[in-house]
Amino acid sequence: MSILINKNTRLIVQGITGREGIFHTSQMLGYGTQVVAGVTPGKGGEWVLDGKVPVFDTVHRAVDITGANASAIFVPARFASDAILEAADAGVPLIVCITEGIPIQDMMRLRRYLDQQEVRLVGPNSPGLLTPSECKVGIIPGNIAEPGSIGVVSRSGTLTYEVLYALKMEGIGVSTCVGIGGDPINGTSFIDVLGMFEADPHTEKVVIIGEIGGRDEELAAEYISDMMTKQIVAFIAGRTAPPGKRMGHAGAIVEGGTGLAVDKINSLEAVGAAVAEHPGKIPELLK
Amino acid sequence: MKLHEYQSKQLFSKYGVPIPRGRIALTAHEAKSIAQELGGRVVIKAQVLVGGRGKAGGIRLAHTPEEAEEAATQVLGMRINGLPVRKVLVDEAAEIRSEIYLGVTNDRAFFSPVMMASAEGGVDIEEVARTHPDKIVRVCIDPLLGLHEHQARFLAVAIELGRDHWREFIGIACGLYQAFITSDATLAEINPLVITGDNRLLALDGKMVLDDNALFRHSDLAEMRDMDEEEAIEREARRFGLSYVKLDGTIGCMVNGAGLAMATMDVIKLFGGEPANFLDIGGGAGADKVAAALQLILKDPNVKVVMFNIFGGITRCDEVAKGILTALDQIETDLPMVARLVGTNEEEGRRILAAADMVTATSLADAAEKAVAFSEKG
Known about the structure:
CATH architecture of the largest domain in chain B: 3-Layer(aba) Sandwich
Distance between the termini of chain B: 37 Å
Oligomer: heterodimer
CATH topology of the largest domain in chain B: Rossmann fold
CATH architecture of the largest domain in chain A: 3-Layer(aba) Sandwich
Mean pLDDT of chain B: 92
Structural class of chain B: alpha+beta
Mean pLDDT of chain A: 95
């Protein structure tokens, strides 16, 4: 079992004919994901990857014809908010935005609109989702995780891979891994994913990978205290980050004394989560 | 991207926010002639993109054009928090009855802009937020509806502004919000917004931070970037699409991915070392970019050892290895290096690196431990 994606997920890829889109589509197909269609305006009617995947001009048409129920977005930043809205308007219930660099004000308007629709946006600036051995949506390397009972949720990309790899090395499997993305405003928060893991009978424990900036980890701690029965192990990146400097991710910045790693660590420890000193320590804290 | 005070105030003024008469001067002589034009008292204000100008003596009052010249001479020779002052704003001095704070920023928790006001203006608002959070009032603004008059009025009433100023205040609040939205800002702030001796509201100081991700649709604003105000090395990094932040330690690190780069710094510190930088080469970096990144690291004279932590996904370990060798061909260095490459094409990467004299590591902790050992040897 898993959350959000599984072997029945029928995926479309927006921006499928771009360099990243086509490469990762082939990776996802190779993993076993059902990529049922791609969308690139102006290229409708073509087929890509040796005729395996049809391309449509609009998401509406792709959904009508293929019955897709999820979309992965690989279009460049300046077109990405339009792509998200297109998927939402076509009724795609799960939208995963890999694109990084969407202006924050676009995201605020978008989030306000999406909250009134029956859709879930994961990202932007997300590495995607992985349900090992069933389905991968996005760019997480498939070979670094085995199926199992640990839920993983993260604001980061490669740091998530580091953690998945550390779990695999210790023979610990994963139910689903969700990358919520490193932007200051995104579609899905830690709390949303924690709720899904709590409800998923096959997830036994949850790993949270947070970082400096914002208060998402603090809110997660409140939620853990109020709602979670499952064990939580966490890692927070950025203890050594200087204030006022953006550390790569648009959302990773300590501003006006808020967003500090130490506050996040203290909040999580206060509600009984085990916080790892470094990613390599996570497996032993799960035992 | 931060804007200078004079740039911010000019933008605010475009949206109807009253600002003092004044202009920018690059020399003391210019400052004198601007003071002459304005007549009467002026304020000479250092234009640097760091806080603490006032405390450092970067803001001076002058009663005559000669005093203005004298003050500008002093301020233009200063360094404030390490940054040289290259220009000053010469503003007409205002008589101040009281000082208000007014600002707009993004509230991450509510996914919306938030406007904040306080009767305690003129001081560090973050300090007020820490010590007297009740003295700051906020309204969340629906990003689809924008700021409404009743919200601005709510702020005016909450900070106990006199009724005779409400109309002006609402106009200023709406102007500031327009400036914030149309410039794709992440912060727009007037501190202080003063009530003058002749009972008008006037934006004495202004600050704006723009969203770098939105600059593609604001070429006019992008041109305002002050190249003098960035660390040369961070500017160089941006040119190559690298994300680099200079730190004070001795262990240079090159990592793919922001979260992993932060975690790498943290692990170095955990093992008793000090990172010299944050450096994210991003996803899918080719050999050229890797070489540029290594050159950047080696430009820092404090660096005693270089640590590579690459988790291959889109980024291929063999490409990174090639980049490292390319850079080492171009630069003379005998600094020790520790490499940890995992993921896509890791074996090929390790084989390429075997040609260089490099210590390899299996895990992040292992790499950090080895790098720290080298840094301690000196």
